[in-house]
Amino acid sequence: MFSKILIANRGEIACRIIQTAHRMGIRCVAVYSDADANAHHVAMADEAFHIGPAPSSESYLRGEKIIEIAKQSGAQAVHPGYGFLSENTGFAEACEANNLVFIGPPSSAIAAMGSKSAAKAIMEKAGVPLVPGYHGDDQSPETLRKEAEKCGFPLLLKAVAGGGGKGMRVVEHMGEFDEALAAAKREAKNAFGNPDMLIERYLTQPRHVEIQVFCDQSGNGVYLAERDCSVQRRHQKVLEEAPAPGLSEETRKAMGDAAVKAAQAINYVGAGTVEFLYDVDGSFFFMEMNTRLQVEHPVTEMVTGQDLVEWQLKVAWGEPLPLEQSQVKTRGHALEARIYAEDPDQDFLPATGNLRYLSTPDESAHVRVDTGVIEGDEISIHYDPMIAKLIVWDETRDQAINRMVQALEHYRIAGVKTNIRFLHALADSQPFREADLTTGFIDTHRDLLFPKSKLDTHKALVLAAGFVLEERKSTESVSTDPWSPFGRRNSWRLNSEYAQPLQLQVGDEIHELKILEKDDRYQVFVNDSVYSLTAKLDDDYLQAVVNGHRISIHGNLHNDQLVLFYEGDTFNCTVYRENYVSEDMAPEGGLNAPMNGAIVAVQAKVGDAVTAGQTLVIMEAMKMEHAIKAPADGVVTEIFFSEGEQVSEGAELIAIEIAKESAEEAG
């Protein structure tokens, strides 16, 4: 077995590989960019080498530099993880040329599946069922339009070299085709260096079901059950599970056999995933093959009891597959939720910030957390915004869902926006519990997945007041006389009863509270309501009784910013000070950057008349494009940034003089 490997990746997957490698007695070499100098994967590795500046193009995508470091460190093999260079044919070839084992398939297999159009041709020849569409070499706009008409609408434009939802657009009718094609080609070129597209019929109620396959160097192949990855946003997976609910054993076997046939058609070696679209009538169609370990591989591990990274290392060393097909068994049900730094309420815009507070559920045989960050780490604009993967297992799907709901309630983050509340609503929703799954699940059930807060505002304010007051007590200086009231930071006054004021800002609204402390309890006045409150704070855990209702919450107070966590929900407020003045970041009609990122395209000039909803600027952040649209009809009066420039969240991008008619309608 290898004695030392280099991991050409970062974050969660690098940590995941190191864990198994260390368990097997293998030393690990990490690489890191400027942004990752203090990253968790660097601390876990036996040694680490600096590889370049923060942008991935100058660090984690520098294949020649990684190979140089691998040789310098004495590593015998390179594990690419997923993303970055994991499906780069040139990098796999370079490893082979430098006598380094690439822990993945042969470069020829990556090349065969790297082009989605070429892959479909190979699968068609191998007898694997395909979705109707076009995957030819002629990429002229005229040919693509003609093939789009032939395929029919709705259709899916997909980058031939793509993955992760990038370079992909759903087109409902021909009127949208040209703009969608231009955007998809541009995004594909930026992400993969290849703007070529394929066209597929867009099935309206499909499920995304994929098969985990494994092949050894002797040509043996097995499949390790299937995963359902139907719940997606922006064509990126949000919640995955194994096994896929509702599939017959006959369908499972047919899919598995087709997946192994697909892998063996390209002389595959190692871990791979064959993805299918599963239609309501039980038919399934080949979509693509990912020639690497998948993000969602833990759910397969949880139901099979196998360590897929260990399998990768053994197969790369030349050992046979650990199991034959008849020996592969599954037990129970597993779910994985991807916890992202993003704002679901703003169309899942990626978020950045510091993980100033991070508390995760306890790990056990039922709960697993795969992550590459710790409290205090920064979520930057340079990499994918995934914070962690939360994986649960139980005997049945219903029990596993209950585990997931509970685990999400115990996952608490402050300092950056996350999708935890959204995931909690999703996992606990009735349609998901009933396995009413399609790739359009989120759009179909949007009202259920963006619920109102479980805490009414008044009760949340009372709890917030209790947290703030108890936090203040915990930081009081110790008086020489422990019974003296003069050392207390409360409302005590000599010979009088005084209600202490407390202002809490929620959004743009400032709430005036008054608190009267009596013995071991408080009276909290909110508007015309009076609440009786007792509270006890132990670190971040508040036990309170509000008007006889006993309630326990967790919270984090930092620089007057308070976040309370309750049953998967959060309540955010600010301890208001007079110097907190809210100012508009841009004049009326201005367009602001919704996040940190780069300007990809400016589609207007000073003096242009624009209409409401027209795309004026396209930004890229965390490998995804975001269109910034005109808020109303008007005329562009000033443009503040050019293509290629980096901008910060809130920066004014374009000034627009709103047309009089639009202003009157708004009024």
Gyration radius over CA? 27 Å
The total number of structural domains is 5
Mean pLDDT: 90
Structural class: alpha+beta
CATH superfamily caption of the largest domain = ATP-grasp fold, B domain
Question: What can be said about the biggest beta sheet?
Answer: 8 strands, antiparallel
Task: Give me the oligomer status.
Answer: single chain
The CATH architecture term of the largest domain is 2-Layer Sandwich
User: Terminal Cα separation, in Å?
Assistant: 72 Å
The tally of helices reads: 18
Helix share, percent: 25-40%
Shape: globular
CATH topology of the largest domain: D-amino Acid Aminotransferase, Chain A, domain 1
Low-confidence stretches: 492-496, 579-587
Catalytic activity: N(6)-biotinyl-L-lysyl-[protein] + hydrogencarbonate + ATP = N(6)-carboxybiotinyl-L-lysyl-[protein] + ADP + phosphate + H(+)
Domain Lipoyl-binding: 581-657
Keywords: ATP-binding, Biotin, Ligase, Nucleotide-binding, Transit peptide
GO molecular function, one term: metal ion binding
